[in-house]
Specification:
The chain is built from 13 helices and 22 strands. The protein has 430 residues and is an alpha+beta fold. Strand 7 and strand 8 form a beta hairpin. The protein starts with a strand and ends with a helix. The structure holds glycine.
Length: 430
């Protein structure tokens, strides 16, 4: 098969790495890709949001299947464009991608279909927001309605921080039109977990559970980011509980979207929080999570390509996707200044000389080449990933490898998986 992956981050590098292992693969292209991806795929200089150019490329190169990494091209209608030209694509159409493209749509959809989620109010201006915050108390969650590259959620802890957050939305207009409407939501307490499944519009095939670490700094401090690390399994969700979430959340989404004439075909991602009152949905994404995909794909035993091809054709013949029992970890090395103003152009001198450690994979996220030297070119720069017999071993290997890679100001959380390990050891001791 001739396959095109759209995107340029660590998730797309991990996807290309996995697809490259498929015996069904003839040609692999990635647009626009990055220097790491260029080692496993032919990179094509078309940006992810240039959907007509991507479709022209797929026609010219007789691409059988296109797999979309990031959300933006999906919300712009990439899957509609490809399907209208009878090109194979795995990803939801524009109307179904609203589940991520509009937080207000997602919230109202959950309310219509009885999917558990935090109480919330939709507001358009400062006064309404202040009133809603008084109703829910502090901390309170503010979410931009539209896409904001993972940065559109603010959690003010008190009145002063609320005023600053509302300035960001309504005065600075930090999120542009995405922040014209915001959701003010009750803050929930519990462990966060990600559950991703593949949908062909009716059936669902769950992937292994995972957990990501969204705050920039240790102990869940600092600003929200796209994700500073992940592991799979999540360590906080048993198989029985994951099955329960499939029934109470994922299946109602797929059946509800079909009922509303927005059939969901693609990766369905639920970001959940496990509260005392049961799991609640924090957000839906219409794609693989980044950096969750890196950990999940490292554990994937089966060939991904035939499953995605079946999904693109609208019918899964595969009944179950199998994962190895081992654990996998992904650590994100981010640039100084991430997430607001990442410093670009720093050479990563140590990358070429980093020792190879068994079970370690390094995926490129925001890198570029400058005269043969890999340099930083985005917020999240590299993903240092590892597998191990269990979470402790995978973490040890990943931190060992990450410790060898440095550039000025690189940011690495040092506590990925730590709380989960503590919970696991206190459970086994009790
Ligand atoms: N890691 C969260 C996301 O991909 O949105």
């Amino acid at each position: 098969m001739r396959v095109l992956v759209v995107g340029s981050g660590g998730r797309e590098h991990a996807l290309c790495w996995k697809l490259r292992q498929s015996p069904l693969l003839d040609e692999l292209y990635c647009a626009p890709g990055n220097p790491g991806i260029a080692e496993v795929a032919d990179v094509v200089s078309i940006q992810a949001e240039e959907i007509k150019k991507l479709a022209d490329f797929a026609v010219d190169l007789k691409v059988d299947l296109t797999i979309v990494g990031p959300e933006l091209p999906l919300t712009l209608g990439l899957a509609d464009e490809f399907r209208s030209r009878e090109l194979g694509v795995f990803g939801p159409r524009k109307q179904a991608a609203e589940l991520e493209g509009s937080k207000v749509f997602a919230k109202e959809f959950m309310q219509r279909h009885g999917i558990p989620t935090a109480d919330s109010v939709v507001v358009h201006e400062r006064r309404e927001a202040e009133k809603a915050a008084r109703k829910f108390g502090f901390p309170v969650v503010l979410k931009a309605d539209g896409l904001a590259a993972g940065k559109g959620v603010l959690i003010p802890q008190d009145k002063r921080e609320l005023a600053e957050a509302l300035d960001a939305f309504f005065v600075e207009r930090r999120f542009g039109a995405s922040g014209d409407r915001i959701i003010v939501e009750r803050h929930l307490v519990g462990e966060e977990v990600s559950l991703i499944a593949l949908s062909d519009g009716r059936r669902l095939l769950p992937l292994a559970t995972s957990k990501d670490y969204k705050r920039l700094l240790d102990n869940d401090c600092g600003p929200n980011t796209g994700g500073m690390g992940s592991h799979s399994p999540s360590g906080v969700l048993s198989g029985r509980h994951a099955g329960d979430i499939m029934e109470r959340v994922m299946r109602p989404v797929v059946s509800g979207m079909a009922e509303e004439n927005r059939p969901f075909e693609g990766f369905l991602y639920a970001g959940l929080i496990l509260t005392e009152d049961g799991p609640q949905v924090l957000e839906f994404n219409v794609r693989l999570g980044d950096p969750e995909a890196q950990s999940i794909l490292l554990r994937l035993e089966d060939d991904l390509l035939p499953v995605l091809a079946e999904g693109a054709a609208g019918f899964f013949e595969t009944e179950r996707i199998r994962f190895r029992k081992e654990a996998a970890v992904c650590l994100v090395l981010a640039a100084a200044g991430y997430p607001d103003n990442p410093v670009k152009g720093d050479p990563i001198q140590t990358l070429a000389t980093a020792p190879e450690v068994d079970g370690v994979e390094i995926f490129h996220a925001g890198t570029a080449l400058d005269g043969g030297q890999v340099i930083t070119a985005g917020g999240r720069v590299l993903n240092v990933c590892a597998t191990g017999l269990n979470l402790r071993e995978a973490l040890r290997k990943a931190y060992l490898a990450a410790g060898e890679i440095r550039w000025p100001g690189a940011v690495l959380r040092s506590d990925v998986g730590r709380r989960v390990l503590t919970m696991m050891s206190s459970e086994s001791a009790s």
